[in-house]
């Protein structure tokens, strides 16, 4: 088995019901493509999205879940509630949540465990800051985040890892292909050493992925797809990224 290719869109805190119009083109591209295609909208849009696209090939996911199965956690969402709404995946440990909500590797690991228990695929995000890269600490930072954020029980079927350098998110700046290759090789090595099917875990790159740079990024060894922010909001931008991944 090889890693399944995945084109994933993270809508972050963007989109209202009017944005559902963008889904039709994305759903059509997902039907045509052999790679997996996932959109993670704000939680309020999960149900309307699934109602709009039906049980087709376009997968819908959440952007976070609580580590507990249920209970007194005002404002939070449980993994089982995402699953109940029809989500198949949940993004965890995005750098914006690590920064805005103080999420640690241990918390991300606990959330991933909750996601697995609920039957969701955890898309676990890792990435260095610009200061960490400038200090030459990138590989150490990534290895530490990976070791701390991935729970026991992770498999290629229930876990995806997304490498998202913090300085590349929403900036239009991307690492060189060598820099991406170096991190993805480390991820593959560590996952293969730790998990029985670590060679098959899908590894995504994220950070300023656009239609113009997607093909170059998808040609890098151990890049099995992308986690796309801004360019996943419009079908005109996201569909060419899906097509590039399918062709890679
Ligand atoms: O954070 C990201 C996806 O999770 C990347 O965002 P951009 O594609 O907008 O840089």
From TrEMBL:
Which keywords does UniProt give here?
A: Cytoplasm, Gluconeogenesis, Glycolysis, Isomerase
The coiled-coil regions, if any, are none
What Enzyme Commission number(s) apply to this enzyme? Answer: 5.3.1.1
Q: Pathway involvement?
A: Carbohydrate degradation; glycolysis; D-glyceraldehyde 3-phosphate from glycerone phosphate: step 1/1; Carbohydrate metabolism; erythritol degradation; Carbohydrate biosynthesis; gluconeogenesis
Q: Where in the cell is it found?
A: Cytoplasm
Q: What class of enzyme is it?
A: isomerase
Q: Where does substrate bind?
A: 10-12, 170, 208, 229-230
Q: Does the keyword Cytoplasm apply?
A: yes
Q: Which GO terms describe its molecular function?
A: triose-phosphate isomerase activity
Q: Which residues form the active site?
A: 94, 164
GO biological-process terms attached to the record: gluconeogenesis; glyceraldehyde-3-phosphate biosynthetic process; glycerol catabolic process; glycolytic process
Reaction equation(s) it catalyzes: L-erythrulose 1-phosphate = D-erythrulose 4-phosphate; D-glyceraldehyde 3-phosphate = dihydroxyacetone phosphate
What is its quaternary makeup? Homodimer.
Q: What is this protein called?
A: Triosephosphate isomerase
């Amino acid at each position: 088995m090889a890693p399944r290719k995945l084109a994933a869109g993270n809508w972050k805190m963007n989109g209202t019901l009017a944005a559902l119009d963008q889904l039709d083109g994305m759903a059509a591209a997902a039907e045509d493509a052999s790679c997996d295609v996932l959109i993670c909208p704000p939680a309020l849009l999960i149900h309307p999205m699934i109602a709009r696209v039906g049980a087709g090939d376009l997968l819908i996911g959440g952007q976070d879940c609580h580590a507990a199965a249920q209970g007194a956690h005002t404002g939070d969402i449980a993994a089982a509630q995402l699953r109940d709404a029809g989500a198949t995946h949940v993004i965890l440990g995005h750098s914006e949540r690590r920064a805005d909500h103080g999420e640690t590797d241990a918390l991300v690991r606990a959330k991933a465990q909750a996601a697995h228990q609920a039957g969701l695929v955890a898309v676990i995000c890792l990435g260095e800051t610009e200061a960490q890269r400038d200090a030459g600490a990138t590989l150490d930072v990534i290895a530490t985040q990976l070791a701390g954020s991935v729970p026991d029980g992770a498999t290629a079927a229930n876990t995806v890892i997304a490498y998202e350098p913090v300085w590349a998110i929403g900036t239009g700046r991307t690492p060189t292909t060598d820099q991406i290759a170096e991190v993805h090789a480390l991820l593959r090595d560590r996952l293969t050493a730790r998990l029985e099917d670590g060679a098959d875990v899908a590894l995504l790159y994220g950070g300023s992925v656009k239609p113009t740079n997607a093909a170059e990024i998808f040609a890098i060894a151990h890049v099995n797809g992308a986690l796309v922010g801004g360019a996943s909001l419009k079908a005109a931008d996201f569909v060419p990224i899906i097509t590039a991944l399918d062709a890679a």
